[in-house]
Task: structure prediction
Amino acid sequence: MAQKKIILTGDRPTGRLHLGHYVGSLKRRVQLQNSGIYDEINILIADDQALTDNADNPGKIRDNIVNIVLDYLSVGIDPAKSTICVQSALPALHALTFYYMNLVTTARLSRNPTVKAEMQMRGFADEGLPAGFFSYPVSQAADITAFNATVVPVGEDQLPMIEQTREIVEKFNRTYGETLVLPNAMIPENVTQRRLPGVDGKAKMSKSLGNCIYISDDLKTIKKQVNGKMFTDPTHLRIEDPGHTEGNVVFTYLDAFCTDGHFAQFLPEYANLEEMKEHYRRGGLGDGTCKKFLISVLDSELAPIREERAKWEADIDSVYDILKEGTARAVEKTNATLEKVRAAMRIDYFKDRSIVQDWKNLLG
Ligand code: TRP
Result:
């Protein structure tokens, strides 16, 4: 039988999802879901992983689960095609994590560049590092392998996690026999979509910096963020001055979002972004016009998502049922993998009584 094509991806429920998530991952998940190429799509709400650096605030995680599911449903994740599930309700993941811990050294974990960067950001270097946080890449390997994922669509920052997972899979299969499926990462092709900067030009959108546009934001908020905070070209003082489009956040966002259709609809003096950029570089195109265009582009993308969200917000009981049913399916899938793993490790003592005969033989 040909290997099934299985997708697993996930998010930590620490806040609403923003435009960085949208271009970097959500939009593509919907395309993958509707492509008909994949046998299974699984989307994991990684609440256990979120707890590794929020142990003192489980309420935040609990509250944001609904935000994440609403974001999924409003962008077009279809629960009939994709399994949406909650990590903490999948006990197989905890068991797998525990076994995989023995296949990774602490030295290897300390070299994981994503964990290193996050440690810095969270101040763990000074305060002391929670062991759970330190080893979350192992739990992520459990997530991925438990679903037998062949493809893991993620942002660029997650590549070290997939690399670490592949090493664990190889080690497991070498040690206990061919059992686990080796996954591949899938990252966005468009470079600006891989890492959308914050509206202030900082490398990443982050809630604490206040430089995000959330996919659920209304037009007023989009305008406030773009007009009030978005970084352009500091040398472009008068409209007539030549301007730079590189490193100009308005153009970075246009690179990530606008299509020729948006020009026809909102700014017909240009056929495409290249023509608009040329005018900006020559001089004579003001930042106000560029921002106004960007606001129209973003709002035309987000308005239908907002409408969809409003419908689901009015029906939270259904949202709960979707999550409960998806999680029940995921329990089955992940338990099946755990059974295979325990069998490969020969620690499935109570599956049948075969060990009784082994013990008898041993004791003569
Ligand atoms: N670490 C991912 C993030 O921070 C979230 C995540 C958890 C995930 N488990 C996963 C992503 C499994 C892909 C596959 O975005």
Observations:
- The first helix runs from residue 19 to 35.
- The chain has 18 helices and five strands.
